[in-house]
Write a structure and sequence with these properties.
The structure is a single chain. By secondary structure, the protein is α/β, with parallel strands linked by helices. The chain contains 12 helices and 19 strands. The strands form 4 sheets. It has a 6-stranded mixed beta sheet with strand order 1-2-3-4-5-6, with helices on one face. Helix 9 links the parallel strand 16 (259-263) and strand 17. Bound molecules: fe (ii) ion.
Amino acid sequence: MSDIIFEQIRSGGCLSYLIGCADTHNAIIIDPKSDQTDHYLSIAGRAGLRIQYLLDTHTHADHFTSSHTLGRKLDAMVVMHRSSVAPFVTMPVDDGETVIVGKLRLRVMHTPGHTSDSLCVILPDRVLTGDTLLIGGTGRTDLPGGDPSQLFDSLFEGLLKLSPDLMVFPGHDYKNRSSSTLQEEIANNPRLQKRQRDEFVRQMRELDLSMPTHLTEALRTNRTGGKTVEQMISEAASKIRFMSLEELRRQIEANTDDMIILDVREKDAYKESHIPLAINIPRGQLELRVNEILPDPTQRILVYCEFGKISTLAAAMLQDMGYRRTIALDGGIKMWKDSHYPLVS
Ligand SMILES: [Fe+2]
């Protein structure tokens, strides 16, 4: 085997992997997570690697993949099992196929059960098991596309028949363990001690697990390539400038009236109380009313809302519409009130 560069990236309980060929400097990321994007790029940059592939071991229900955004940014292929419905997959793979990364060969094994599109990635000395097999556990089978009987086959007829010496690198671990081996899992993993299909299926059905926090949003974005709310807000935030609560209070007290203060909450909330001198255009009416209410695009505009999120989106939108001096309040009227700053009704 050619020399391998292998980095495990931990983010909460999620594990992703950057695997590179030391000879050719080609690389693949397995299960890239949206909040680790800059981390991957900095590791790859330091090691002089070009990321050529992004692979998701399955459609994740608990976190947000960055395969599609990184794929576009890096002009890299996005690899998933062919049964994945995600439209951003550019390289659908089937059981037994190989992805070549420089001089490394990564063999794909389709292992449905946790989801119908789950796969494991096999290298000569290790296997990346996604959520099919975890250290001391298995992926759950009660989420959309899960099937305990299929997981039984994928494990006992597939994965566990590979060489017992293979190191196991899972997609999750919540106890700070980084790897184990197939042999150790076969011997010690409690879920693998149920070796009859019925017992195994019953054990999986009896697990009473709570739903992942971002289930609906994760499935929506991971299956479509759409954006998360956090991503929408952070993209908007990267385009605009902000003003602190203290600075706004200072400006109001100094009575410098060269700035329009724009409250984008609903009318009733505005009527109840608002920041002194603020005018109100609810967010939902903004695009259609700017020509009438904000005729001067060179005017400085400060936007605020309840918590500082909608105002970030609104400020970025106003910038797009040509109001280049728009800024957003860093925080919302909630924090303004909590700070006991002046309000008018
Ligand atoms: Fe998963």
